[in-house]
Amino acid sequence: MSSQPPHARVAFVATAEAGDADMAARIARHRAERPRHWITVEEPVDLVRRLEKLVGTVDAVLVDCLTLWVSNRLLRGDADGAILDECEGLAALVRRRLYGVTLVSNEVGEGVHPETAAGLRFRDLLGLVNQTVAAVSDRVVLMVAGHPLTVKEALPSDDVPPEAP
Fold first, then answer.
1. Catalytic residues, which ones?
2. Residue 146 CB: number of other CB atoms within 10 A?
């Protein structure tokens, strides 16, 4: 988001829900840490519909996070195919570049192997969601111990790589 001028119209799209006092406190803390001129949109499940409503009203959107969005959809009882279809809609929206989009997600495939079928389903589904949005993103950054590791950096469209000698 650093490329946006301080007066940019930014929407923070939150997918978390305050299911208990601890989560409510976390949400309140995150809200207090955000710049005051950002608008907050709370949308735990219908992400693409809400993002489409922001077209023409904002310059940039920060979605935090796809991990909770997938979890919310699974807990609601949505089938994997429905979640992946919605993710394809999200990827199509990102490709249209109607405004700057930053998507936050977690990499859960490098952790402990889940012991339950639900854990395996979540891990695999989130992995597919992450792959889908990464494929259409100009930049992918993996944060490790607070340090950014650039996984993907697209060349600007007018910057043609030099030919090999």
1. 30
2. 5
